[in-house]
Amino acid sequence: MKTSIPQSSLNYWMHQIMTMLRERLEPLMTEAIRQSKTTYNDETRILVRSRIDKNAPFKYNVEYIHAALSLEKKLVSMVYDEGTRSHEVQEKAFFSDSKIKLFMADRAPIYSTIVKDLEEYEIERAACWVHSRRLFINAFLSDERVRPFLKMINAIFWIDKESKRLGHSFEQRQRYRQRHSKKLVDCIFELAKEYRQAGDEYGELVHKALDYILNDEEAFRRFLDHGELEASNNGIENLFRHIAMGRRNWLHTGSHYAAQNIAFMYSLYESCKLNNINFGNYIEDILTRFMYGEEADASFLPNQWVACTPDAGTQTA
Fold first, then answer.
1. I want to staple 220 with a disulfide (CB 3.0 to 4.6 A). Which of 80, 127, 147, 160 is the partner?
2. pTM
3. Do the Cβ atoms of 243 and 62 come closer than 8 Å?
């Protein structure tokens, strides 16, 4: 069109659009996730440029984006609140007065604090078996005597894979785990206690892996009693992949405001992927509907959005 538009103007327009979408859709997405029974929670780092006031020099700080994934609703919500890693971010956004009764997360202190702070809601945390396997893999590089742990943890995931192949319901998967996985879990903890009692016979990396599971045994066993719960937190960690790539490519985010918009837009994008929706077609449709004055409701969310044409919503490569 032979038109030259300054980059700053384009950035400003894009942020206006993202802000409009965030203000209208983020409360709906978050509330839908709050209606779930089970979520997968995590946080990831993002480098943000910020300053106290306009006269102060810019500083580059490692900040945090929090997220909750609901496989039940096929939605993920990523929240940035001035970059803090405080437990209060997820308590306020996802857990307080919600229907969530079970969530999976790593052993970061914020999650034990959430369970303690919201004790009246009887929320339980489950531990991720992939996290424990990573530690045993690290230990295996220096001491192959931890091989039995790796074999048994791998067998736990194979049992779940077989359950999925058989088309089990959540109730059937729970019974299948009780029949097969529980024996493995019992054996893992019995063997871990033997290794720990051996003391200095094993090195620091081995004891680090042992302590990780033994100090959180109840949470690691929790998946056995809940067929709707996966054995790992890989689902939500994979949704952070583009942000992790961004840490190497675009290096930093220009402000807290930009980080807030980026977190929400990745929520929208990853939720579209969960629902096999073409992100471009989805954005074009909802922006057009907003332009013609429609009010945001649940039909605007990726898990309930219906394409105008039969092929419009299909995810493309």
1. 127
2. 0.91
3. no
